[in-house]
């Protein structure tokens, strides 16, 4: 097994002892992404979600992947009442053949943001 650490300077650095992503045997595991600076600026949930997706996209690109290579996403939200807005932004990044996914409401997220997304991609 070969393990490669993935880093993109275009995405926020990890805020703890973890990597932005790790590649193992063609599978890319992207750590949960948040949009702290956008959240702190008072942005809408749609703007926050869009920045989370952009952060994830930068990391995927650093790994040699695109959104079309994503096979699974895990979305964690602070308020399920934002589900429709989150879904709309998410869907714009996966217009065809979206990956498998779960969306879970949680009591709290890192830095008190409203949404966090992790994903798994396969380098074809």
What does this structure look like?
- The structure is a single chain.
- This protein has 124 residues and is α+β, with helices and mostly antiparallel strands.
- The chain has one domain (3-12, 19-122): RutC-like (60s Ribosomal Protein L30, Chain: A, 2-Layer Sandwich).
- It is 27% helix and 30% strand.
- The protein contains three helices and six strands.
- It has helices at 36-40, 45-62, 83-93; strands at 3-6, 21-24, 27-33, 70-77, 100-105, 115-122.
- The chain has a six-stranded mixed beta sheet with strand order 1-2-3-6-4-5, with helices on one face.
- Strand 2 and strand 3 form a beta hairpin.
- Helix 2 runs parallel beside helix 3.
- The longest helix is centred in the middle third of the chain and has 18 residues, at 45-62.
- The mean pLDDT is 96.
- Belongs to the RutC family.
- One of its GO terms (molecular function) is hydrolase activity.
- This is Rid family detoxifying hydrolase.
Give the gist of this structure.
With 124 residues, the chain is α+β, with helices and mostly antiparallel strands. It is built from three helices and six strands; from the N terminus they run βββααβαββ. It has a single domain, classed as RutC-like (60s Ribosomal Protein L30, Chain: A, 2-Layer Sandwich), CATH 3.30.1330.40.
What labels would you give this structure?
124 residues, alpha+beta, 3 helices, globular, YjgF/YER057c/UK114, RutC-like_sf, hydrolase activity, RidA
